[in-house]
Design brief:
The chain contains nine helices and two strands; from the N terminus they run αααααααααββ. By secondary structure, it is mainly α. The protein folds into two domains: about 1-130, Four Helix Bundle (Hemerythrin (Met), subunit A) (Up-down Bundle), CATH 1.20.120; about 130-285, no CATH class. Strands 1-2 form a two-stranded antiparallel sheet. A hairpin with a 2-residue loop joins β1 and β2 (about 285). The longest helix has about 35 residues, at about 135-170. The two termini are about 35 Å apart.
């Protein structure tokens, strides 16, 4: 019964996200519409609650669910909706629902496709992991890596939008999208805040992962390509933070650095899943 409830809640959240995506896209194209915006927010909130229930029900049924594959995509979608509300109500930046909510819906759909191919259920309990990784250190390592990566990517997207709007203003070429985007200062501030929050989270994840490797006495763990590339990601975003807060570099330059860091995060995600060598994948010790 709980398994059925989990599946129904999952698809209900997917439908809610699709409906909210349509409303936010309409708002983006046609301008501020308070009623449509409010309805979109309510539907998005219902989607998040429904997905949370799906995660909880699935956890009750299976007790432990690994943070890998389709489950990781579900967790990222869950986090993106949460980040959307944080941006909307804490930072007071509008229109990000038109970006984050559709991405969440797409991730849920891909998660079900991946689960169907792999023969597993696409649900995840954020605080629980399988017997392969029931070590507390590894659990937090995986969760913090996912959270940090998501925040860094959204910060990189905000920087990319900054570059897009800046180019339009410089060339005097605007369209519907560029006119609906927030001011350059707001985009720059959003990117810096997200990256500032993400950096200590990502760094803590690395420390926990290294701690686990040392405790497990993994030989030559520091030569693992995933670990080395995660150091590159951290270095790029630290450079962004230093240059941004020193305020001696143009906004365009720091935005390009953030975008480069976002590309590195994406590359690392791909490498973490596809590299045939190394002692771990997504925090799972081989």
């Amino acid at each position: 019964m709980l398994e059925t409830a989990s599946l129904h809640s999952f698809w209900l959240s997917f439908v809610f996200l699709l409906a909210a995506s349509v409303l936010f896209a309409r708002q983006m194209l046609m301008g501020e519409q308070r009623m449509g915006s409010m309805v979109g927010k309510i539907i998005t909130g219902l989607a998040w609650v429904s997905l949370t229930l799906s995660i909880a029900f699935n956890s009750m049924v299976h007790h432990r669910t690994p943070l890998t594959g389709a489950n990781t995509l579900v967790l990222i979608a869950w986090l993106l909706v949460l980040v959307y509300f944080a941006i909307e109500y804490l930072f007071r930046f509008k229109l990000y629902g038109a970006v984050l909510v559709p991405i969440s819906a797409v991730l849920l759909f891909i998660a079900q496709v991946v689960a169907a191919i792999g023969g597993g259920a696409a649900n995840v309990a954020p605080a629980q992991v399988s017997e392969q990784v029931n070590n507390t250190v590894t659990t937090f390592h995986v969760l913090l890596i996912i959270i940090g990566s998501v925040l860094l990517l959204i910060g990189a997207v905000a920087s990319a939008l900054y570059l897009y709007r800046d180019h339009g203003l410089r060339t005097h070429k605007t369209n519907v999208l560029s006119r609906r985007l927030p001011a350059l200062a707001n985009l720059e501030r959003l990117a810096s805040r997200l990256i500032t929050v993400a950096l200590p989270v990502y760094f803590a994840a690395q420390i926990l992962g290294i701690t686990r490797a040392i405790v497990e006495r993994v030989p030559h763990w520091y030569f693992d390509l995933r670990i080395m590339f995660s150091g590159v990601v951290l270095g790029v975003f630290i450079a962004y933070g230093v240059l941004y807060h020193r305020q001696k570099t143009s906004g365009v330059t720091t935005a390009w650095i953030a975008v480069a860091g976002g590309v590195c995060v994406i590359v690392l995600m791909i490498l973490a899943r596809t590299l045939p060598v190394g002692f771990h994948t997504f925090g799972l010790i081989r």
